[in-house]
Design brief:
MFS transporter; 2 domains; 19 helices; transmembrane; Growth Hormone, Chain: A; membrane; MFS_DHA3_Transporter; mainly alpha
Amino acid sequence: MLMLLRRPLREAGATSTFYVLTAVAAFAFATCFTLNLVFQYRVVGLDPFQLVLVGTVLEATCFLFEVPTGIVADLHSRRVSVIIGFFLIGAGFAFEGIVATFAAAIVGNIVWGIGYTFTSGALQAWITDEVGEESVGPVFTRETQIDLTFSIVGTLAAGALGLLGLRAPVIAAGVTLMLLAVGLWVVMPERHFHPTPRGDRETFGHMRDQFVSGLRIARSRQVVRVFLLVSLLVGLASEVFDRLWRVRVLESFGMPAVFGGDEVVAFTVFALVGTVVSLVASLASGRWLPRRVVDTNPGLPVALAALAQVVAVAGVALLGNLWLVLACVWLRGAAMAFSAPIESTWVNRNLDGATRATVLSMNGQADAIGQVAGGPPLGALAARTTIPVALVVAAVVQAPSVIAFLRVRHATTPSSERPVTVERAPRHTEVGRSAHSSGAERSLE
């Protein structure tokens, strides 16, 4: 099977293939995730606990299959790994949409979670190999622009398809990704792949060693300790919010008359507004925030962003007006987009080259562990009481992150390390990417 996928039938250029792949994948993910949770609630009939459990299963799947799927990308072929991955993601989407039961949602998320681990990291490593490290920077910049553009197109497509039925966008996204995999089998080139050396490959022992090394570094650097703690707290609190804020809206409010009372149209517009607001916040962080603040006192804007997230989660739980609740949802997304580049710069300035990949990987693992540990209890709490109660508890759980950032608000760059920018790691250094497995979903909020 792997040998059949190794060579394209009609080889295309690597960069153009990457751009088309990015556009189609962004379109498909946005098409699926814009209304996916509404579909799970309205059509499948999942209760709050089941909704959160589906997300937790996805996170756990990505975490557990990180190493096994890495064998394909590290030893056999990045191309093969990417093709298998997109086909499995599409199959998972389509299966969930067609069968539309709780069991199908669990199985579908396991399948697409496994597919995600095949693609994440392998895709970036493939394009880096093909165009060269010195030329890949502009390619990734262009990728971001394409991803945003086609995410918006996919959101609009989800709204149009959703008018036909809430299954339609989920199934359409799955079919699109399976067709993408077939197209990649036909044209995706791979001219510069070399198997990863044994010492650099991902293994469970490697993950254990990274965790131990990360703890050793955290004991000596306060900033690293804070980021690991915050990642754990955010993970504990985020799963219940990500999975249940839409249900909170559906249960508590009617859709505005301006949308004709239609849930599909309303949630499509909500997603578009959220995307635009987060984009503006990201631009504000990168272009308008005074550079001296990021360089000398990064903890202050990050703490304020963390406070905004806590207030937003509490607001979604407690406010009784639809537009105020939505404003809180958008505020949370904007705060995350605003603080992300500052956090990345800050933590990287407190790491040396030899330990950077280890600590960043461990940071992702802490978030993933938090989501797996925190999701089911808070989901069960929402089912036994109410969603607002669970959201208030999530806000309380995340609140210490504000204090943590304020206590270590100043930059402390190691003398041996100049300020750095965040780089994409190759496939074998990206342990713990399960923390980002719901990234496509969150980007639409």
